[in-house]
Design brief:
alpha+beta; 57% helix; two-stranded antiparallel ribbon
């Protein structure tokens, strides 16, 4: 029987958080400049109800992001519903989606990038298009939140598309079998 090589691919949460913060700042400045150039200002009024709505929207969209990963595992990776899980890692403060069955590198790359447009870029673009700066800020934070998926996508790029990937149940890491 052929022995497959096994490589653990992981992301340092500290490094990732630094990159997410940097990406958030760059995107926020860029989106703010777009608002100023297009509409003459980038104004934001903070109220308790507005802040509450913002955080509720953030939580709902973060959960939707993970649901989209689950849909990707199901329909791109062919993982059965019984082999899918999602939850919240209290220690790391992250919501996660998990496939208990291995899928190919090519499938995993698609699954990783699937939520970027609907849960990140779309709110940001809509915020700019509608001159709704708080929606733009929400989109910036959600787009920056997709950065971990993008980092994992890039790390997978060095492996052949047919290699298999087993997702870690609760951490941003997986094992690649070649």
């Amino acid at each position: 029987m052929e022995q497959k090589s096994e490589t653990v691919v992981s992301v340092s949460m500290l490094k990732l958080n630094v990159w997410v913060l940097a990406a958030s700042i760059v995107l926020l400045v860029g989106v703010g400049l777009l608002h100023v150039l297009l509409f003459g200002e980038a104004s934001l009024t903070v109220t308790f109800s507005g802040l509450l709505l913002f955080f509720i929207a953030m939580m709902v969209i973060v959960c939707l992001h993970e649901v989209i990963h689950l849909v990707g595992f199901r329909y791109i990776g062919g993982v059965s519903r019984q082999e899918l899980a999602w939850g919240f890692n209290w220690k790391m403060g992250v919501v996660y989606a998990h496939a208990k069955k291995p899928i190919t590198v090519e499938q995993m790359q698609k699954v990783l990038l699937l939520p970027l447009v609907p849960t990140g870029l779309l709110p940001m673009v809509l915020g700019v298009a509608l001159d709704h700066f708080s929606l733009s800020i929400l989109g910036v934070l959600l787009t920056a939140g997709c950065f971990g998926d993008f980092v994992l996508y890039r790390k997978l790029s060095k492996f052949p598309g047919h290699a298999t990937v087993l997702d870690h149940p609760s951490k941003p890491e997986f094992t690649v079998y070649e």
